[in-house]
Each structure stands twice: as C-alpha cells, then as structure tokens.
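Ticket closed. Logging final result for Site-specific recombinase, phage integrase family.
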Amino acid sequence: MSHMVSVLIDHDVIARHSSDPYTFYDLGDSYCSNPFWSSCPHRMACAGCDFNIPKASARAQTLESKASIGYYLEAVPLTADERAIVEGDLAKLDGLIRKLDDVPTLDGRTPGQIEAKKNR
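Final structure:
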C-alpha cells in the first residue's frame, strides 16, 4: 500500500547545482526539506525536526511564491505499522510512537530530546 504525497521541487536550485534543499514534501501544515523523507522512520512525527518548515513561516511562503517551483506527486510506500494506523489501529500508533522514542532523527537527536528542548 502506498500513499500519494505532494512534493514541491525548486528547479532553480537544481539548475544552479547548489547544495541547498530543492525537494519539499507537503505534510499538511508544514514542509519537510529532507530529500529522503519517504524513507525516514520519523516521517509521522516531524514537528521538532530541523528539516521541518512550518507553512506559516516566511521561508515557506517565499518557497510557495517562487516561479521555479514545480508541483508533483510521489507514491510513498507505507510500512506495516503505518498501514495499520491508516486502517484505524490506534494501538499500533501508540506502539510506533514508543518504538521510535529512542531512534535518532537525522540530526542525531531522539524524539525525546527534541520534545525536551521544546518544553524548555
């Protein structure tokens, strides 16, 4: 089972051969600038991640207004846990959250460390 996700691609960044992010996954209320979001184990808990760009931010609004942005869809395969969650299994959701509590995100921090930083 896959899920279709909207992806914004900044073609100017690609044309410049820049190391800046050029792929932005639409997460509803934010964008993820991690080009490997589709394989990130934390892709359902992005709020505190450094790759997360809230749509209300100036950066996201600037991104959305650029003429070089292309809008695409990407099929993202769901893990067995995600499939169960989509089908309404709340116990699986709680289990997935607990399972990922101590798994480091791409910046090296665990979700618990990110949450602790937000609560300071």
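The longest helix spans residues 90-100. No further action required.
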